[in-house]
Design goal:
With 246 residues, the protein is mainly beta. The chain has 2 helices and 16 strands.
């Protein structure tokens, strides 16, 4: 298991070394397991393959609150000492918000507190060789806004017309569960897209949520302002989380 903290440090621990508790137990303070500094908080947990030899086949994407991203080989973080290892260089007013395993075939989805989001190819971020870089811009944020989460999505090779036709077909399902309008799609094309379908749930601080098909979010170049994810009205409040669901 990999533990990533808000100050950009990574720790590694075998899962069997974590104390096993009952559903009623209070658990054990993480400070008793890892040598955290004052004010350092665990922000992300990453389950990793037990065989470290396979890590060279995987990549990892970092995202910060200020909208920066960085892509590395997972094997760059295999040799972690007991006192941790700096995983990403951060500006003083920035913090790490998410770290996810990805592949060159993945899409990166960043969600901001102010209600916007952006989706871009993982390969739009060059593969960094070291750990002493703050990365590159993934999303341009408005004043006072910040990234609150990152999701890794499947990269689907489908043009806008095909995606729109699929979404219309999904909305044409009758009470018996049958598709009444395939539009320009064949049933085979529809089934192929259905296999790649993902759904994102956005949640706001006042307890409201919205479920959206991932095909609704078009792929753009990294570094832009993005598009609306969910309305941040007085009723909804700011966004606190966005993540894939089934």
């Amino acid at each position: 298991m990999k533990f990533i903290t808000t100050i950009g440090r990574g720790y590694k621990m075998k899962v069997y070394r974590l104390p096993l508790g009952s559903p009623q137990s209070l658990g054990k303070a993480i400070i008793n397991l890892l040598p955290l500094e004052e004010g350092e908080v665990i922000y992300t947990l990453m389950p990793l393959p037990e065989e470290e030899e396979s890590w060279s086949e995987l990549e990892v994407m970092f995202a910060t609150a200020k909208g920066n991203v960085r892509r590395n080989l997972l094997s760059d973080f295999s040799n972690v000492k007991a006192n941790g290892k700096i995983a990403m260089k951060l500006d003083e007013d920035d913090q790490l918000v998410d770290v996810r395993i990805c592949t060159p075939d993945s899409d990166v989805f960043l969600a901001a507190r102010g209600g916007k989001c952006i989706r871009f190819r993982a390969t739009d971020v060059r593969l960094f060789k070291g750990r002493d870089s703050s990365g590159v811009r993934g999303m341009k944020l408005g004043k006072g806004d910040s990234v609150i989460g990152m999701s890794i999505l499947k990269s689907v090779e489908a043009d806008t017309e095909t995606r729109d036709a699929y979404l219309r077909a999904r909305k044409s399902i009758d009470e018996a569960g049958n598709i009444t309008d395939y539009g320009s799609l064949t049933p085979e094309q529809y089934e192929a897209l259905l296999q790649d379908e993902e759904v994102l749930l956005a949640i706001t601080e006042n307890g409201y949520g919205k479920r959206t098909n991932a095909f609704e979010y078009r792929v753009t170049n990294r570094g832009g302002q993005g598009i609306i994810n969910i309305e941040t009205s007085d009723r909804n409040g700011d966004v606190v989380a966005t993540f894939p669901i089934t």
